[in-house]
């Protein structure tokens, strides 16, 4: 059976969920071979094997942390040449897309970004994309070279499928461009203890209607009652009420959870671009005409300062 | 020595319009008004600020697109860019990201450059990969997705806010930079700027000017193929209640019925 390269997104050996989803999708088109780079690369093997990786190619070098993107492209290219896969799958993070694009160009292949589904077709994998702020669904193929496809988080359910997951050392020679962009400092993000926004099953968001940094505690309390991640509209982020890393939308994160709850958010096209594919959508807004209500499965027209605390209390009561 | 900045700007269908596909599954550009991709305004803005700090700098804005794409160039010129290049050719219709990066890279080389500045992503294709592709083709450092950028003594520095960490980056010129919408509000063209833009030079190049064969670009030359495009069915109308004191509890009831609680 053909092999499919899967680029592993991990933090010091802890594999992030989108990679496990990729392994599930990869099995539809071949046998997954994972490529894990950088600090803790070999520690990823157990999780990857459990989700279907037949082999795990690893390599660690200071270059991965010290320089931007290109060292990882060099390594993925080395893996590509060693394996001759039928396709290359990469998680659709900002960095993942850049790595995938440069690889595609080097190996003379077309690239599809932000796929939301993947299936085997007569002439190679067929990717589904959700485009124009999720108002259209397209089916796209790579028509030249080996398909390089980046896949959005939450595009498939994670399935366990134990495989060998044999760890093999990857040989990598860095090219002249690898050290072009130096990372001179790095400030890791502090964990809030809440789920990762793009990976969360439930996202609770606040917009301009939340009206202040302190008031975001109401949104956080609701999120915590549901074990959810917290999101924000750009208006709330631009006002400085919540960090940019929590922004949902075209220029923020794109989320596709089981449940999305928008509080005090009007539903501008750029916000919708990042949440319209959520399975169930709920909104609380005091304006009955707000465009967000066109999207909802359930909406409450009301003041979020009344509705949200009551909802949180009711959830906590029902749980307790 | 003059700092030569090339800003890549894309002409896109207005996101608030009714965007859709034409029969050949490329973007229908006739039915919806086009404009300068809003995210490229941030690239123009940063170019203007970098030029202000430099002793001597020249900003060229570059677009690859149909006749109407000149509108995007005019907007960038009215914001304060010095000159423009429009790459236009019938054979470009349907070009994918790989092909677009080829045309941009050839045009940038022909124009001459020390620094290329792009937007973080277009507002239609939203791939966010063209700047990395252009850097790969030019063989120069990519310093992308910056929310803060500066240039001094031939070195570009910036801040990239990623998922796991915020990073400070540094590279020698020449380099390709892309900036996010966190990099700073873009200025509005002034009346004077709009008048001045009318007199600024706009060069028109076609594929032969760039030594690119028609087969390398366009729908035929694309390395990806769109097989189908379907409008997403409208969501079925949901239940909307007015809060009369029990809105939170009613919503909890809905969430429980859907097994979220
Ligand atoms: C809905 C949709 C989906 C698509 N999916 C794919 C796909 O999966 N794979 C693929 O190869 N192509 C795809 N394309 C085609 C692709 O979007 C365009 O060919 C192309 O112009 C570049 O990609 P982008 O718009 O995503 O640019 P991005 O990479 O998002 O653009 C980043 C920056 O590059 C610069 N730039 C991009 N295009 C131009 C231009 N024409 N002129 C000047 N500067 C420019 C701008 O500074 C811009 O801010 C898609 C197009 C559409 C409309
Ligand atoms: C290029 C570009 C990219 C963009 N990217 C993004 C993006 O990634 N994400 C994003 O979100 N936006 C983005 N935007 C901005 C977007 O266009 C909107 O401006 C933004 O989404 C508005 O945020 P909002 O809904 O919180 O605020 P508003 O539109 O001001 O809406 C606030 C809502 O809160 C309601 N409200 C007020 N008080 C209360 C109350 N007490 N109780 C209940 N409801 C109340 C109001 O009725 C209103 O509907 C982008 C814009 C551009 C041009």
TrEMBL record, chain A:
InterPro entries, per database record: DHS-like_NAD/FAD-binding_dom, ETF_a/b_N, ETF_a/FixB, ETF_asu_C, ETF_asu_C_CS, Rossmann-like_a/b/a_fold
> Which family is annotated?
Belongs to the ETF alpha-subunit/FixB family.
Q: Which domain of life is it from?
A: Bacteria
How it assembles, according to the record, is: Heterodimer of an alpha and a beta subunit.
In UniProt terms, what function does this protein have? Answer: The electron transfer flavoprotein serves as a specific electron acceptor for other dehydrogenases. It transfers the electrons to the main respiratory chain via ETF-ubiquinone oxidoreductase (ETF dehydrogenase).
Q: What is the lineage of its organism?
A: Bacteria, Bacillati, Actinomycetota, Actinomycetes, Kitasatosporales
Annotated Electron transfer flavoprotein alpha/beta-subunit N-terminal domain ranges read: 4-183
Q: Which cofactor does it need?
A: FAD
Protein name per UniProt: Electron transfer flavoprotein subunit alpha
Alphabetized, the UniProt keywords read: Electron transport, FAD, Flavoprotein, Transport
């Amino acid at each position: 059976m053909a092999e499919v390269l899967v680029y592993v997104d991990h933090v010091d050996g802890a594999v992030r969920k989108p990679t496990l989803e990729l392994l599930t999708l990869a099995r539809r088109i071949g046998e997954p071979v994972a490529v894990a780079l950088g600090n803790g690369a070999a520690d990823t093997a157990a999780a990857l094997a459990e989700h279907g990786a037949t082999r795990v190619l690893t390599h660690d070098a200071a270059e991965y942390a010290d320089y931007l993107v290109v060292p990882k492209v060099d390594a993925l290219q080395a893996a590509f040449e060693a394996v001759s896969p039928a396709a290359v799958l990469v998680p659709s993070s900002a960095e993942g897309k850049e790595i995938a694009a440069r690889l595609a160009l080097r190996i003379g292949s077309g690239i599809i970004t932000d796929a939301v589904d993947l299936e085997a077709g007569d002439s190679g994998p067929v990717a589904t994309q959700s485009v124009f702020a999720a108002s259209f669904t397209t089916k796209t193929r790579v028509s030249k070279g080996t398909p390089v496809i980046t896949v959005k988080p939450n595009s498939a359910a994670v399935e366990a499928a134990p495989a060998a997951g044999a760890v093999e050392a990857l040989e990598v020679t860095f090219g002249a461009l690898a050290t072009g962009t130096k990372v001179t400092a790095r400030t890791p993000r502090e964990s809030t203890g809440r789920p990762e926004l793009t990976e969360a099953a439930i996202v609770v968001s606040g917009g301009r209607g939340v009206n202040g940094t302190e008031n975001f505690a109401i949104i956080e309390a609701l999120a915590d009652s549901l074990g959810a991640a917290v999101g924000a509209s750009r208006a709330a982020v631009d006002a400085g009420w919540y960090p940019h890393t929590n922004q949902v939308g075209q220029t923020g994160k794109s989320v596709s959870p089981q449940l999305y709850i928008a509080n005090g958010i009007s539903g501008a096209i750029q916000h919708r671009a990042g949440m319209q594919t959520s399975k169930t959508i709920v909104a609380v807004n005091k304006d009955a005409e707000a465009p967000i209500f066109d999207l909802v499965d359930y909406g409450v027209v009301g003041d979020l300062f009344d509705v949200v605390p009551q909802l949180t209390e009711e959830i906590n009561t029902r749980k307790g | 020595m003059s700092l030569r900045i090339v800003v890549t700007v894309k002409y896109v269908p207005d996101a608030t319009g009714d965007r859709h596909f034409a029969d050949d599954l490329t973007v229908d550009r006739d039915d919806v008004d086009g404009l300068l991709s809003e995210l490229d305004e941030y690239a123009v803005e940063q170019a203007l600020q970098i030029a202000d700090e430099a002793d001597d700098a020249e900003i060229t804005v570059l677009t690859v697109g149909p006749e109407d794409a000149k509108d995007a160039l005019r907007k960038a010129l009215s914001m304060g860019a010095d000159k423009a290049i429009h790459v236009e050719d019938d054979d470009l219709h349907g070009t994918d990201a790989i092909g677009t990066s080829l045309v941009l890279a050839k045009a940038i080389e022909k124009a001459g450059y020390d620094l290329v500045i792009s937007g973080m992503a277009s507002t239609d294709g939203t791939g966010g990969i063209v700047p990395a592709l252009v850097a790969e083709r030019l063989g120069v450092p990519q310093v992308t997705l910056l929310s803060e950028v500066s240039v001094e003594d031939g070195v570009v520095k910036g801040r990239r806010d990623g998922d796991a960490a915020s990073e400070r980056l540094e590279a020698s010129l020449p380099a390709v930079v892309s900036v996010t919408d966190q990099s700073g509000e873009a200025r509005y063209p002034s009346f004077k700027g709009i008048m001045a833009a009318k007199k600024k030079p706009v060069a028109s190049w076609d594929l032969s000017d760039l030594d690119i064969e028609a087969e390398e670009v366009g729908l035929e030359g694309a390395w990806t193929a769109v097989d189908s495009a379907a409008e997403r069915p409208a969501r079925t109308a949901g239940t909307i209640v007015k809060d009369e004191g029990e809105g939170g509890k009613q919503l909890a009831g809905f969430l429980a019925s859907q097994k979220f609680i």
